[in-house]
Amino acid sequence: MARNTDNIERDIEAARDQLAATLDELSVRVDPKRLAENTKRSAVATLNEPAVKFSLIGVGVVVAILVVRKIVS
Q1: C-alpha distances in angstroms, 67 versus 44, 58, 61, 63?
Q2: Can you give the pTM of this predicted structure?
């Protein structure tokens, strides 16, 4: 069953449109500013979790105590 040229041309045009849309979406996804924003947002969200926040505070206190002890000794 042979396809006529009009159908083939429509299929090619549809494929081109889909490829253009895909390339546009990829260019948005790999934008350095957007990647930096997403990374920053993710880091801030992780640091705001209570378990992480209190663990970092605890480590900071221990380091501060050790520094003070080293200076005093």
Answers
A1: 27, 14, 10, 6
A2: 0.50
